[in-house]
Amino acid sequence: KQARQLENELDLKLVSFSKLCTSYSSGRDGRRDSSDTTPLLNGSSQDRMFETMAVEIEQLLGKLTGINDKMAEYTNSAGVPSLNAALMHTLQRHRDILQDYTHEFHKTKANFLAIRERENLLGSVRKDIESYKSGSGVNNRRTELFLKEHEHLRNSDRLIEETISIAMATKENMTSQRGMLKSIQSKMNTLANRFPAVNSLIQRINLRKRRDSLILGGVIGVCTILLLLYAFH
């Protein structure tokens, strides 16, 4: 019963909300077509009504969501037949209604905000145009100066962006060069560390060759002396 009551209230509120959005759009179009000098931004009362109705509908949607959650908890509680098709069908129906109302509310709200934003933008542009047309020569000259200054600022902004891009590219190149230099330095350090070991190995090889030569010479000399002694004995 609570869910059906909230659904009825939501249905009425959404109908009124949709009518408000439609009347807002048609009213703005009518005022714009009726006179070029009529101000467009005079719907503050409709804006306040929109905000009030949106808050009320959000509150009702929150209450209906809470009721659906309680019904879901009841169906999942102990003592309730889990295979009650009618009960599950009723719960699913209320969920579908809540989903439809939520979707309709967000869609209508988005349309209203889009229309209001468009009208505010058009109104601002039209005011600027009317102010420019009705302004004196001094105001026109001032506007031209403002436009030129704006163009200068845009050019300066573009030059700053180009300078920043060049600086970033230079930084990347210097970073890559620093990495290459570090790699070369590490390789040089590795070679420098290896050279003492190579020199030490070569010295040991030479010492061993010299020792082997001395041993071989001594053996040959001894053998020669023994052969001579044997020959002249």
TrEMBL record:
<keyword id="KW-0675">Receptor</keyword>
<keyword id="KW-1133">Transmembrane helix</keyword>
<dbReference type="GO" id="GO:0005484">
    <property type="term" value="F:SNAP receptor activity"/>
</dbReference>
<dbReference type="GO" id="GO:0015031">
    <property type="term" value="P:protein transport"/>
</dbReference>
<keyword id="KW-0472">Membrane</keyword>
<dbReference type="GO" id="GO:0006906">
    <property type="term" value="P:vesicle fusion"/>
</dbReference>
<keyword id="KW-0813">Transport</keyword>
<keyword id="KW-0333">Golgi apparatus</keyword>
<dbReference type="InterPro" id="IPR023601">
    <property type="entry name" value="Golgi_SNAP_su1"/>
</dbReference>
<dbReference type="GO" id="GO:0031201">
    <property type="term" value="C:SNARE complex"/>
</dbReference>
<protein>
    <recommendedName>
        <fullName>Golgi SNAP receptor complex member 1</fullName>
    </recommendedName>
</protein>
<keyword id="KW-0812">Transmembrane</keyword>
<dbReference type="GO" id="GO:0000139">
    <property type="term" value="C:Golgi membrane"/>
</dbReference>
<comment type="similarity">
    <text>Belongs to the GOSR1 family.</text>
</comment>
<feature type="transmembrane region" description="Helical">
    <location>
        <begin position="214"/>
        <end position="232"/>
    </location>
</feature>
<feature type="region of interest" description="Disordered">
    <location>
        <begin position="23"/>
        <end position="45"/>
    </location>
</feature>
<dbReference type="Pfam" id="PF12352">
    <property type="entry name" value="V-SNARE_C"/>
</dbReference>
<dbReference type="GO" id="GO:0006888">
    <property type="term" value="P:endoplasmic reticulum to Golgi vesicle-mediated transport"/>
</dbReference>
<keyword id="KW-0653">Protein transport</keyword>
<dbReference type="GO" id="GO:0005797">
    <property type="term" value="C:Golgi medial cisterna"/>
</dbReference>
<dbReference type="GO" id="GO:0048219">
    <property type="term" value="P:inter-Golgi cisterna vesicle-mediated transport"/>
</dbReference>
<comment type="function">
    <text>Involved in transport from the ER to the Golgi apparatus as well as in intra-Golgi transport. It belongs to a super-family of proteins called t-SNAREs or soluble NSF (N-ethylmaleimide-sensitive factor) attachment protein receptor. May play a protective role against hydrogen peroxide induced cytotoxicity under glutathione depleted conditions in neuronal cells by regulating the intracellular ROS levels via inhibition of p38 MAPK (MAPK11, MAPK12, MAPK13 and MAPK14). Participates in docking and fusion stage of ER to cis-Golgi transport.</text>
</comment>
<dbReference type="GO" id="GO:0005801">
    <property type="term" value="C:cis-Golgi network"/>
</dbReference>
